[in-house]
């Protein structure tokens, strides 16, 4: 292991804290280590953090480290952790229900909840891996189901904003934002397929976060699909499923483009925020990825230059 210069470690720490400062999210020592873009021994990281506190470069309250001298950020995170813990059982129930629908291969909990935080308005975000060439059929069925959840005020428990086909699991946007999202996914159904997702992206993820053990995690066995799901799948597979899949993709894309233009959003951002291909569906109209990466570039952190994409 090479010896790092102290100023290099300081810069890396600031870059890591800066990323999460965008979300007003102070970090524990282990979290700074986990999300550092450089291979830093934990003891060296700890001693450098203590030196930075003495010089006033960073601040520490209750074992949380941050760039801003604001203890309310710690209170905010602790309160958010309590809400997130209270929501986890519901999140697993939502994932289990989604797993009963046709062509769902794996379900992961994502968003702020997967990072151990929830506010009063937090949704339960779900990342879904589908069977090959069935993504848009799967997505359409699930979003018809979500429309029905308004009847019992459960729509916030089923925010399915990212779908990916099992045959093309390598994420195209390889940057700090997407690496963080992958690193914090919580597999809730069939983690064997989730592991395939990590393996397909391992080469670039290791470069982003070298201190994470990408082989860790509890395996969740996939249960055999229920009878009604198998019947659904068998029936759909008899009626030109590939053509239907592409038709649903094209119809959805036209509708999304129409709404995007009607709201006056810049069309150059559409393909990133509302990615619509046969192997992926991303529905992020607020385009957090672009906003976060833009803020990081404006901070001018050299250790993130190659990570921003």
Give structural notes.
The chain has 2 domains: 6-69, Orthogonal Bundle (Arc Repressor Mutant, subunit A); 87-288, no CATH class. Helices cover 50% and strands 11% of the residues. The protein has helices spanning 6-21, 29-34, 42-54, 71-99, 135-149, 176-184, 191-208, 227-236, 241-262, 270-273, 288-299, and strands spanning 59-61, 64-66, 104-110, 125-130, 159-165, 186-189, 276-277, 280-282. The radius of gyration is 21 Å and the shape is elongated. Mean pLDDT is 89; it is low at 302-309.
Q: Briefly, what is this?
A:
Helices cover 50% and strands 11% of the residues.
Q: Which oligomerization state do the chains in this entry correspond to?
A: single chain
Order of helices and strands: HHHEEHEEHEHEHHHHEEH
Compute the number of helices. 11
Radius of gyration: 21 Å
**What level of helicity do the residues show?**
40-55%
Distance between the termini: 27 Å
Provide the structure class: alpha+beta
Shape: elongated
Q: What proportion of the residues form beta strands (DSSP E)? A: 5-15%
- What do the pLDDT scores average to? 89
User: Which runs of at least 5 residues are low in confidence (pLDDT < 50)?
Assistant: 302-309
Strand order, sheet with most strands: 6-3-4-5-8-7
Count of folded domains = 2
> How would you characterize the largest beta sheet?
6 strands, mixed
Number of strands: 8
């Amino acid at each position: 292991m090479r010896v790092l210069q102290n100023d290099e470690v300081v810069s890396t720490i600031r870059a890591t804290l800066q990323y999460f400062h965008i979300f007003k999210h102070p970090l524990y020592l282990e979290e700074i280590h986990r999300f550092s873009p450089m291979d830093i021994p934990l003891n060296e990281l700890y001693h450098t953090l203590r030196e930075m506190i003495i010089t006033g470069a960073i601040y520490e309250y209750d074992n949380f480290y941050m760039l801003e001298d604001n203890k309310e950020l710690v209170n905010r995170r602790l309160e958010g952790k309590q809400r997130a813990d209270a929501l986890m059982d519901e999140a697993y129930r939502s994932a289990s229900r989604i797993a009963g629908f046709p062509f769902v291969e794996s379900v992961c909990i994502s968003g702020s909840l997967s990072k151990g935080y929830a506010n009063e308005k937090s949704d339960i975000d779900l990342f879904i891996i589908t069977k090959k060439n069935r993504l848009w059929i799967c997505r359409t069925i699930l979003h018809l189901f979500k429309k029905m959840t308004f009847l019992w005020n459960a729509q916030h428990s089923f925010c399915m904003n990212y779908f990916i086909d099992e045959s093309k699991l390598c994420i195209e946007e390889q940057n700090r934002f997407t690496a963080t999202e992958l690193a914090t996914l919580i597999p809730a159904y069939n983690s064997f397929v989730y592991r395939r997702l990590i393996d397909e992206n391992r080469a670039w993820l290791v470069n982003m976060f070298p201190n994470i053990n990408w082989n860790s995690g509890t395996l969740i066995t996939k249960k055999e699909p229920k009878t009604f799901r198998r019947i659904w799948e068998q029936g759909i597979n008899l009626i030109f499923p590939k053509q239907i899949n592409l038709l649903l993709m094209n119809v959805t894309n036209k509708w999304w483009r129409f709404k995007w233009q009607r709201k006056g959003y810049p069309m150059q951002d559409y393909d990133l925020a509302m990615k619509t291909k046969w192997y992926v569906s991303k529905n992020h109209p607020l385009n957090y990825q672009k906003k976060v990466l833009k803020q990081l570039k404006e901070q001018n952190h050299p250790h993130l230059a190659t990570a921003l994409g």
